[in-house]
Amino acid sequence: MTDLLDTPYDLLGIGIGPANLSLAALAHGLPRTPGAEAPTTAFFEQRPEFRWHPGLLIEGSTLQVPFLADLVTLVDPASPWSFLNWLRHRERLFPFYFSERFHIQRAEYDAYCRWVAGELPGLHFGHQVDAVRWNPERGLFEVDFTQIGADGEAEALGRAHTRDLVLGIGTAPYMPDPLRPLAEAPAVPVVHSSEYLDHRDRILAADHVTVIGSGQSGAEVFLDLLRSRPAGRERLAWLGRTPSFAPMEYSKLGLEQFTPDYTRYFHALAEPVRDRLVPSQWQLHKGIDAGTIAAIHEELYRRTLDGGWPDATLTPGVSVRTAGRIATTQLELHLEHEQQGARSRLTTGAVVLATGYRERPASRLLAGLDPYVRKDSSGRPRIDARYRMLLDPTVTGRVYVQNGERHSHGVGAPDLGLLAWRSATILNDLDGAEPYPLPRRTAFTSFGLAEREHHRPLPTGELLPLVEHP
Question: What does the pLDDT look like over 290-311, one tens digit per residue?
Fold first, then answer.
């Protein structure tokens, strides 16, 4: 085993998704004070290249956030790594201007991120991190990794050292337990929506297709299948556990729950309150874009013009209890309707699981640090307001967490609109000199009484009480 570098890095990132790509972009070019040395950084990713949900880049599908929620703009609009600068490099700025688009296509966001990943230095693809340890003698983290070749096979082992770490390992596709065994057997297609485009032709060839999941991904897959099947012979079912196929919360004040102000408010709540709150906020991130809902209804309505009804069943409030195979070409889903308390069976030829994602557990990766990690009552790492994992004081290095802190920072953890702000918060803490000044206030809403007092203008000479009684 050989060291990647004899000199330790200042910061090493594990994973290169949008979160760590944002951090790498904002770290590039720092510091901005004359005479200071730029921090040395490296980011490791086991995949051979950057790709953002390639199986869901369905033609015409768009982001649910504006293009300003790129990797850098909301904290550094003048950054060379902005979406608008990418358009300029591609000589597409004027066409974009005239298109009057605020929400860009998913494929466009993927292409933009791949451009940044291809131009930034210090990104090491094909590097699988195997273990992390704290070396108290050197006061450094040791990071063991395997270099992966183009054929997916291990080529060499290595070790890097760093003063601080940042985890950006992201999320993994989630498959419900009743359907996981079926997905592992290839005879009848049962695929997660993250791999939809890879299996699209095979799914379309099935005599009947079922989409499970009532969020945005499920809606986009269902719409794509609906548009691709002949009228009157659609043979589609769309099932969801939510009580309805509900629109995503997209009101102006509702969106303020994706601001740094709300993140600070949520982080300050008691742990039991946070745990109760997250499931109740499903419509903030598991609903469907209103435009997609309208497109589905329009497509269904168009197919009634000849007097018939499309052969498509849309049923919310349903869960899959068990599932099994019938011969070699069919699946049988055993369903339960929560409100009715009724049970039924559905025979289908293919299933697309739009069942979302779960945070990737870091327990195996950080097994060597486990004795040092402070945990909450549910055994999860405690993460402070600056995204630092709380460690034993004997560990002088810092471990930052990106998109793995929903339990401590709320539903905005995976939101693209908070990428740049979180990255800047980490870099400000790392640098100590706050190279990225961040706004003190970002929302009109005061989410709690303390925030209400904080936001109230203070006239000259007036001292406000800590809590104002009605």
Answer: 999 999 999 999 999 988 999 9
Kind and range of the H or E run holding 146: strand 140-148
What are the C-alpha distances in Å from 420 to residues 50, 79, 95, 111, 273? 18, 11, 26, 18, 27
> Which residues are CB-neighbours of 254 under 8 A, at least 6 positions away?
284
Cis previous bond, 31, omega within 30: yes
How far is Cα 202 from Cα 197, in angstroms, rounded to an integer? Answer: 10
Q: Where is 271: in which H helix or E strand? A: helix 271-280
User: How many Å from the N-terminal Cα to the C-terminal Cα in the chain?
Assistant: 67
- CB burial of residue 4 (10 Å; 0-12, 13-18, 19+): middle
Specify whether the CB–CB gap between 352 and 196 falls below 8 A: yes
* CA proximity to 401, closest of 165, 175, 201: 165
At 61, list the tokens: 């599908």
DSSP strand pairing (9-14 vs 154-167): parallel
Tokens of 444: 């009109």
- From CA 385, how far away is CA 267, in angstroms rounded? 7
Residues 396-455 pLDDT 10s? 999 999 999 999 999 999 999 999 999 999 999 998 888 999 999 999 999 998 765 556
The rounded distance, in Å, linking the Cα atoms of 196 and 61 is: 13
Instruction: For residue 139, give the 3-state DSSP assignment.
Output: coil
pTM, whole model, 2 decimals?
Answer: 0.92
| 292, two tokens | 């997609």
d(CA 124, CA 147): 9
DSSP assigned state of 385:
T
Please, which residues have CB within 8 angstroms of residue 447's CB and are 6 or more apart in sequence? 261, 262, 265
Burial readout 245-255 (b: 16 or more C-beta within 10 A, e: otherwise): bbebbeeeeeb
Coil, helix or strand at residue 254: helix
Q: What is the DSSP letter of 81?
A: T
